[in-house]
Amino acid sequence: DSPFAEGEKLYRSGDLAAWLPDGNIEYLGRIDHQVKIRGYRIELDEIETQLLKIAAVQEAKVLDCDDANGHKQLVAYYVAETRLAANELKEELAKQLPGYMIPSYLVQLSRMPLTPNGKIDRKALPAPEEAADGGTEYVAPRTLLEMKIARVWQDTLGVPQVGVKDNFFELGGNSLSLMRLVQAVYDETGIEIPLNRQFHHVTVEAMAFGEGDQGLDKGGDSFIKLNKAGDLNVFCFPPGSGFGIGYRELASRLDGGFVLYGIDFIDDAVDYEAMLNRYVDEIVRIQPEGPYVLLGYCFGGNLTFEVAKTMEKRGYSVTDVLMVDSWIKDTLTSSETSEKELEEMLADFDEEEKELMSNPLVRERVHRKVKATLAYEAQLINSGTIPARIYELIAKDSEAFRLEHQLPSWRGATTQAYADYRLEGAHEELLELARVEETAVVIRDILEQVKRQIEAEAGVLHGS
Questions:
Q1: Distance of CA 35 to CAs 47, 62, 399, Å?
Q2: Dihedral of CA 374/379/385/386: which sign?
Q3: Is the domain of 319 the same as that of 422?
Q4: Do 100 and 129 contact (CB within 8 A), yes or no?
């Protein structure tokens, strides 16, 4: 019942508004535009706002819909002055939004269908699988292997047709469906695609090509380019989990300024010296000339230090190293990793990662990688110094733990400048959604400083 007029009714419309002091009512949007997909809470209005900032886009509506397999996906419908390819829109959105907020499907319409009340008619919107633009010309499978892989894609994505050049993510795929795809490809063909190759090879053609003699070089599967644009490369070494993909949220926030490479622990080298040399070989393949900038979070800092020493030994100049809540390892530790310890480590994974772990193939690989990483960590002692500037970033919540256990800092590990910084939050939060924005601000400032120093040193070297 209405408190303002006796005998009248008030209806909850779901609209959010503010009653201003001058008597006007300001419309603020909808109350119920937050959805949860793959463990992330997402404001649909925020995605629509970013779409409307793209010059040619006139109208935009983002919905959460079930795909052909019953999985929730983000779908963006938009009206634009000119034809816009889905991949171009995704690239623009990726500059402003984290990966989990990029719509799986983008559908261009000539106009938005409306109800008689002037609201968007959801029932009249086309099904995303049928109307989404993959942004590439259809090329049919040309070999038996491509045909098999294409059929697996169709079954996984619930789409009627897949070309060999279609992009998996632009057809509505995400990291979870990618893992289901990898398992299905293995079941169908017996081909086991390395975890990081999945992120490089997102077309049928590339998946099939990677199995030939001209596939990725040995060691290349351990590196993944996590963002797209920047004028300084940063090579990021893995924590105890053994996977570099954990830097993905940080990378998305540094895109445009710095290119981050997430690096996995190499678990198939003949010995640890060969492993370190493979890291160096791949870094130099990606960036033939120095100087080089390295970064490591947690145990990744210990591995970074060893790689930096190997690079210097081989004549490659590492000028700057960022240690993110890491400390020098100066004692041997137990090499035995119990199943309980593994489970405790895996329990720290986020919701999406835990769902990935339900895939038996993925779970076996992760266990193997974690065990190999922890075995290397157990026997490692960081000794000596490097001629690189070290920036040590310490989580405020870690300071008491460091003091209690007398954990040494990296101050004495360099013959050059040393600086330390404080990060808000706990150790395990620094690269996660809870704190990654704050972490990225500090790291961006450091990397801007690094870039200026490298440019100044290059100018002095060349007499300019």
A1: 12, 11, 37
A2: negative
A3: yes
A4: no
* 367, 251: one domain: yes
pLDDT tens string 246-293: 898 899 889 889 999 999 999 888 999 999 999 999 999 999 998 999
Which of 267, 292, 298, 296 minimizes the C-alpha distance to 280?
Answer: 292
Q: Where would I find the beta strands (DSSP E) of 242-301?
A: 259-263, 292-297
Q: Per residue in 309-350, pLDDT tens?
A: 999 999 999 999 999 999 999 888 876 655 666 666 666 665
Residue span of the structural domain in which 99 resides: 34-131
> Residue 389: is it exposed, middle or buried by C-beta count within 10 angstroms (0-12/13-18/19+)?
buried
Global pTM reads 0.64
Read off the CATH number of the domain in which 432 is found. 3.40.50.1820
What number of other Cβ atoms are within 10 A of residue 409's Cβ?
A: 16
Tokens of 175: 């990291």
Please give the full DSSP string across 97-115, using - where no structure is assigned. Answer: S-GGGS-SEEEEESS--B-
User: Helix 339-346 vs helix 360-379: angle between axes, to the nearest 10 degrees?
Assistant: 110
Sheet of strand 418-423: strand arrangement: 223-225, 259-263, 233-237, 292-297, 318-324, 389-395, 418-423
Q: Which tens digits make up the pLDDT trace of 398-430?
A: 888 888 888 888 999 999 999 999 999 899 889
- The helix (run of H) or strand (run of E) holding residue 401 is helix 399-404
Query: Tokens 């990291």 appear where?
Result: 175
- 226 in the same domain as 197: no
Q: Which of 226, 266, 240, 224 is nearest to 348 (CA)?
A: 240
Cα(377)–Cα(155) distance, integer angstroms: 41
Amino acid identity at 75: V
